[in-house]
Amino acid sequence: MGGYIVAIRIHKFPQVFAFLGTSFVLLALMGLFNIGDAVDALRPPFINATLFFGFFMLTDPPTSPAKDNDQVVFGILTAAAGTIIYALFGGLIYLFIGLCLGNLYSYLKKRSPSNVVVNRSSMTRTTRFGS
């Protein structure tokens, strides 16, 4: 209930649904093809951690994107990276590794040259025309 309230208040439902949907679909496929310990990931300690992670940790406003399309990409990337790490190595830290990769995507997206705004009014005539 608390996770639902948080996701509503900060407008992160696309991100939460993309993360949880991707995570559960990948775990179902892993279970279908007997890859890793997918069954264990759907048991109480891990499933509770995934739900907490999806509703609270993933939706942290400073580190997650604001636009819906970016939220979906962020959620899918985080879930895919975490689930692949779980399939390859198991362990308990797979969700955090996925979040680190999602945060790296978010950081690079915010710092990309297409998002840089140039203030042309502060440029001089010689700077603009190269003379």
Task: Give the topology.
Layout: H1 2-9, H2 13-32, H3 38-41, H4 44-57, H5 68-89, H6 94-110, H7 125-129
Question: Could you explain the architecture of this structure?
Answer:
The chain is mostly helical. It contains seven helices and no strands. Helix 2 runs parallel beside helix 5 (68-89) and helix 5 runs antiparallel to helix 6. It is globular, with a radius of gyration of 19 Å. The protein starts with a helix and ends with a helix.
Task: Produce a short descriptive summary.
The protein has 131 residues and is mainly α. It has helices at 2-9, 13-32, 38-41, 44-57, 68-89, 94-110, 125-129.
Question: What features would you highlight for this structure?
Answer:
single chain, 7 helices, mainly alpha, 131 residues
| Extended strand count | 0
Unreliable stretches (pLDDT < 50, length at least 5) are none
Q: On the 0-100 scale, what is the average pLDDT?
A: 85
Supply Rg: 19 Å
Strand content: under 5%
Amino- and carboxy-terminal Cα gap = 63 Å
Please report the number of helical segments. 7
Main sheet properties: none
> In sequence order, what are the helices and strands, one letter per element?
HHHHHHH
Bin the helical content: 55-70%
Dominant shape: globular
**Strand-pairing-aware structural class:** mainly alpha
